[in-house]
Here is the input.
Amino acid sequence: MTESAGPTGPAGGHVIVVDLGYGDAGKGTVVDWLCRGGGFGAVVRFNGGAQAAHNVVTPDGRHHTFAQFGSGSFTPGVRTHLSRFMLVDPLALIAEADHLASVSVPDALDRLSVDADALLTTPYHRAANRARELARPPGQRHGSCGIGIGETARYALAHPADAPRAGDCADPRALAGKLTLLRDRLAAEAGRRSGAQGGEFLDVPPVRDVVTAFAAFAERVALVGAGFLPGLLRAGRVVFEGAQGVLLDEWRGFHPFTTWSTTTFANAETLLAEAGAAATRLGVVRCYATRHGPGPLVTEDPTLELPDPHNRANPWQGPFRVGHFDAVALRYALDVAGGVDGIALTNLDVAERHRLSICDRYLHDGRPVRRLRHDAGRDLARQERLTGMLLRCVPVLGDPDGGWPSAVARAAAAPVLLVSRGPTALDKTPVGAGLRAGRPLVAVRAAAPGPR
Here is the structure.
């Protein structure tokens, strides 16, 4: 495949890209591939915030880790829209735009729109996040990214009227009032936990400096209302790019080792339904399991030497862990997410170079477990009990019968539509006609039975 020929993507509709694991499966590189040849005019971000790390490498060797900008930004003309479900960090976003400019994408901010109702992540959220994580006893870290995402969501739930939002950046006086209240409340909480007057939390910029920076952000980007996205969807095809992974979902993940974000298709489908539109569901999985930091990883194998140049240990999340392909966890992700129309299978080159196994069942107290039970409620105590069970499970490993694409398709009860053997768009190969021109990807929906 040549770069000019490029992938065409699904014809005739929008696509939602979601990670079916613990994150880091390659959502960014799949979105980049779609946008390079698929006729998509925009990428919509619909969950998470600046903690996302979607690595894209171009065929000419440029690299960028996409956090808030859409991973289609290397393709000229592709816009990014940050929906109301995003947690927007203006300071991190400007820094990201600067890096994009250094890799020959100088107009990322010109192609950006932000829903005015999106929550803002501030230096005060970040400081509170780190203070909370440092206060945890040794060995009880949750694997936070240390960027303030959880504190942003937590504060908005506790004080919805006072939570700063993107639209407040255009009103410096109102923003200053909200930021002052936010800073004082979070500092007081940190102080109560530490028995001091806020401790390291006090090492944050003055409110006036944050207001100045956020006001400059408001002047530079397009702050838009609720009517913008429906118009964008009518104007052309859109990729909805998810962050993190279904197994980290705030309600469906394995509590407490989760994120403060809905990582399933739900937010994207809410936005689409409001616009009277629909989309194809594309799930992304690696040929092996990965996880950043603590929490269940049943198939973990410390003897596997699978270094990832873009995922390393860091002081907040902890180590980058790897294991064999986990079909039990995949089935659970599909059940709680409502199924998919197709799978993008990444890192096939790793499976071709290393002896990797597939886990089709666990053993728990000597009894086989092929499917994890779930319900539609929001019962974190139940999820924590599930976590405890998983930490006591042992994987039963075998070979991928018929090769990796066939084995994963059977495990997912959905077709593998794309395989990736490397980091660039040129390393992607569509399987069959599902992601080629002339056949809408939605046509394969009937071949993907499962709960909705």
Remarks:
- The domain at 14-84+226-442 is CATH 3.90.170.10 (Adenylosuccinate Synthetase; Chain A, domain 3).
- The first helix runs from residue 27 to 37.
- The first strand starts at residue 14 and ends at 19.
